Amino acid sequence: MHDVLLKITDLHVSYGKKAILRGASYDVRKGECLTLLGANGSGKSTSLNAICGFVNPVSGSIMLNGTDLAGEEPHAIFKHGVAQVSQGRDLFPDLSVEDNLRLGAMQRGKGGATQSLAAIYERFPRLAERRRQATRTLSGGEQQMVAIGRALMSNPLILLLDEPSGGLSPQFCAEIASIMDQLKSEGVTMLMVEQNLNLAFRAADRFIVLRDGQVVDGGDVAAMAGDHDAIVRNIYL
Ligand SMILES: Nc1ncnc2c1ncn2[C@@H]1O[C@H](COP(=O)(O)OP(=O)(O)OP(=O)(O)O)[C@@H](O)[C@H]1O
Questions:
Q1: 6-37: pLDDT as tens digits
Q2: Residue from 11, 44, 48, 54 to probe ligand 1 pocket by mutation (most atoms less than 8 Å from CB)
Q3: How far is the first Cα of the chain from the last one, in angstroms, to the nearest whole number?
Q4: Which mutation among 42, 58, 197 tests ligand 1's pocket best, with the greatest number of atoms within 8 A of CB?
Q5: Whose CA is nearest to atom 11 of ligand 1?
Q6: What is this structure's pTM?
Q7: Would you tell me which CATH number, out of the four given (3.40.50.720, 3.40.50.2300, 1.10.569.10, 3.40.50.300), belongs to the domain 1-80+190-237?
């Protein structure tokens, strides 16, 4: 038996009249990394946005440790322990690295446990060196580290990662991959959307494939023994 942390059941999300998620159901188990795969427009980012409360589901449930998050406000969902990392887009560019990191802890508020800055700097020495720099002066990969660090400051129950490798050089992709390895070894639960299949399969324990807003495939990454072709065909053909 696996401990389920997040249970999505029959989730429907629409933008106006356009149905994007059409009855998606899946679980994320405690301590695992689950990757959402699927062609462009299949509803991967919408899934993360629904979990975070940036978009309200039409119906269905999003149970986190027994609490239904569906329809809750984003700040309330964050306080329940869901933190999203979205490609550095939501950082404050003129604030220092340190101030951006501190904001992650403040947002969770008094009730939530937080990680110390020292712990984040130990994990990301590159950020310690740049702690006083305006965040906009960092490279894309370093900004992605700030975004991950900021999410970790709130000590989340689950980390949602939207394209962690997006737009990064191969060198930074490798760094992000090793950060994810480290998070996994620490038992951090992650739900990730990732187009870079090398990273997706390296970091993930399990995957699911979305097509037209429904789950059409899924399984254990280890069981595929490196044979990813069938999955790729299922996603893109
Ligand atoms: N705010 C919005 N308003 C209207 N339509 C939207 C909105 N956000 C996304 N969509 C549409 O919903 C569909 C699914 O988008 P989503 O971003 O979830 O796809 P995705 O699977 O993450 O794709 P990609 O791999 O291209 O990022 C797309 O057709 C997109 O144009």
A1: 999 999 999 999 999 999 999 999 999 999 99
A2: 44
A3: 34
A4: 42
A5: 41
A6: 0.90
A7: 3.40.50.300
